Amino acid sequence: MLRRAAKILRNYMVSLIVLALVAVAILYWNSTRGFDDLAMASIPDYSDVDERSILADQDIKSRLEPSYLKYMRALEQEGAKDTSGFRLSVPSMEYAARSEEGTSVASSLDGWTGDVLILDGEDSWVEYKVNVPEDGFYQLAMSYYALEGKRSAIVRNVQIDGEFPFFQSKKMEFQRMWREAGPTTKDNQGNEFNPRREEVFGWQYREFRDAEGKVSEPFRYYLSKGEHTIRINAMREPAAIGELEVFSPVQIPSYEQLVAEYDEKGYKPTKGHFIKVQAEGSSLRSDPTLRRVEDREPATEPLNSKAITLNSFGGDAWRKGGQWAEWEFEVPESGLYNIGARFGAWFLNGIPIERMVMIDGKVPFKEMNHAKFPFKQGWQLHSLTDRDEEYLFYLEEGKHTLRMEVQVGSLGEVFENVLDTTSKISLLSREILQITGTNPDPNRDWKLEGSIPNLVPRIHLMARSLDDAMNKLYDFGVPKGSSEVSTLGEARDQLLAMAAKTDLIPSRLASLTDMQSSLGLWVNGLSTQSVIIDYFVIKSVDHPWPKAEAPIIKRFGTTVMDFMYSFTKDYSGIGNVYDDEEVIDVWVARGRDWVQIIKQMVDEDFTPESGIKVNVNVIPAGAMQLLLLAQTSGLAPDVALGVEGEVPIDFAVRGGLVDLSTFSDYEEIASRFRPGALIPYRYNGGNFALPETQNFSMLFYRTDIMEELGVTEDQIPQTWEEVMNLIPLLQQSGMDFFYPHAPNAPNNAVNEFAPFLFQRNGDLYKDDGRYSDLDSHEALEAIKMWTGLYTNYKIEKQADFYNRFRTGEMPIGVADYTTYVMLSTAAPELTGWWKMQPIPGLKQSDGKINRSTGGLGQTAVMFNSAKNKDAAWEFMTWWTGADAQERFGSELESLLGVEARWNTANVEALTRLPWQSEDIDAVLEQWEWFREREVVLGGYYTTRHIANIWNEIVLNGVIPREAIENGVREINKELRKKREEFGDDYTAGGRLDTGGGAK
Questions:
Q1: Short-list 55, 56, 54, 58, CA closest to 708
Q2: What pTM was computed for the model?
Q3: In Å, how far are 34, 355, 497, 512, 668 from 492, measured between CA atoms?
Q4: Beta carbons within 10 angstroms of residue 376's beta carbon
Q5: Partners of 233 in the beta sheet?
Q6: CA separation (Å) from 359 to 33, 396, 459?
Q7: 344-378, pLDDT tens digit by residue?
Q8: Which stretches are transmembrane (predicted)?
Q9: DSSP assignment, residue 984?
């Protein structure tokens, strides 16, 4: 019996293994091939089908300039070709016209002979007349000198005969030059820190290129024979022009052509030379964000097992098109060398990383326009080649420079394919909405195929476009089954499913919207390509390449050592750690990179000037419970930064914080901020926090679409009534207005509701915070207007505004400052086609428009347990001052890029950061109406029930007054419980009368 049972069990196990293997094979087949590949093969050619949408004239593509690739494709189909043998240099002072304001002249600038023209105003411009001998393509370049500004790259755009030939010509970046200001420093724990970066001023030369690196060669402009006007417009940062050059396209030889030239000239491979250049020692870079980084792999040079060593270069920061870094090296004899690198390219799953490689300022051969660094989960070391044969580089004896620039040109066509498809999906969605409305009846047969021309063929063609993009990725070297391809595959399969069952499309409109968002995010994600480099190798052919990684035993040993050190090492301390009794302890609830900047500023500025030593420790962002635990256990710091805006009152009512207004200069320090920004931190007549950051909302709008709709600049909505008049016009064209609503983040509900209440001079609470005031007439009217946007005007309850703003579906809406940063950095096709202004408001009896709104930020607080309160206050006053906030904002932007722009609450510091003048003027106008809400104990019930009120009215159809009464009843219960818990004498107290945020 036992033998029989064992046999049955063995057979059972074999069957399970076979089934598992079959399942794995099926999964592998699906992941590498895709279950709809056969369906794609069966789709007709559709070569004679008109896939033009009936709304094509409303597509942004019809109003914006074409992309560069489409511009080139159209001209080449007409027979346009490169010219040859022409080069014209136009000195900057030989202009035909220039703007009266924003331009100036400099003599002998940094060794330049004669005068040069400077464009130092944001709207300044200069025009040059050029005469070309024949029809064809020409390239443009200029020598330029970046003048002292706000540390950003110089941005210019170029018009030919008054027109932008393609949208990339509207935004071109000319980088500055940066270097390390000195050697790296170490704290008293042995950890190494990046030195400050300083700008290097000097003349540079650059062709007119794509700012995002999605085109691998300099732009070609088509010019007909004769005279043309080239206009250069300044968009950001001051710079001088040395010469403008117009020339026939430079023909870079292929490697095969270069090898033939080597043979003709008799160049021979060198022998016995091996040169290693540590990448962290970059001599120049285009961006101060490019810096040394740490890697813990044992073969990375050098390695310190006990402390942080910055032994590599690049990483996440080295990812945006146009960013470059340069290294210097020297070879002992002239001849042919291999050039390679030890690098890590594990940032995008399966996607090779590209860089343009230049030797001594020139691309040596065509393949180096887009040198590939293949994907691998681990370090690699090999020659700069993506094929079996290693490239040889001819180098003369002596010093040379090696420059690498971020380049994604090989994927440019893929990105364009995908973005074109998202545009077509957007147009199709709007066609469907015009038939079904925003809330289609799921039980009705809409018969879309009879109403929308060529519906199924158009969907099939969209699916084919995505399938073509996937195949191009495979050709590029992306392995089948890569997660980076799955987004395209899922979108393709969704489209095929919709084409198979068109009657289900109305119920899948949300899926179409989500598809657009995911495809837009996919393009943005793959456009940022990072790589980390340990060192470069310049060697003779006969010398072997080193090993890329340490032996597995050594790697295991390093892992064990790191684990053992983790029990004794304090990871929360940043920089120098002091044991003195006189030191003040500061905890910062932000990322480690942010905190390192603060500590560096403290050690370089604050401590030398004040004599006060500071220990800075990092705690996880948003982990406010750690502060509460520290206070109750008697381990609270002296000062905490990055404290969420609703937290200070929770601590203050428990006696945990110092009343900052007891310091004699408090009023002077408080004047640095907008008065309305201080409201949430007042309790019982005291002031318990200083604001660090201040969020704010603005009205963003597409100028091109508004003009198309007949809405002129002076007709952009200033009041909510004008917004409601505009919404029907938008919806008639299949567009919509955006107002933020985050259903999965009820804490945002108060911020979404506050403008409608504050603009009526209403309040959330009455009787010094004892009772909710949501049952007031002002609150009732505010809630009716707020929810009416969704119930009466049917605007979208939730949307990805950034992507739908780009597609044109939501050409106007309210959003916070992060949208400004995203549009400024990641939407080059919209350059010059969008603006922002203060949010709409309500007209007051005096004729002014009340635009009051808040934007709760982060704060700095001092704990009552602080031993030296005067020293802690001196630190807080230094930290919130304009100079410190400006430097922190600049250093942060230098480290992490424009995406991390610091939204300081200090008004003066905000004006010093690198905003464009028109934009900062709009922000400051909105700040004049800044009014924050009160924070009271039990206020979380207000947040919760405002979200519930919205849900009840908008989703369940409850009468506003009924929903409000239910909510107020529950809020008042909680407020009463908190009064009883902390004593009946509790009040919100000391509230600032801002007159509803009025000027």
A1: 58
A2: 0.81
A3: 10, 30, 9, 11, 61
A4: 14
A5: 125, 157
A6: 41, 11, 47
A7: 999 988 899 999 999 999 999 999 998 999 999 99
A8: 12-29
A9: T
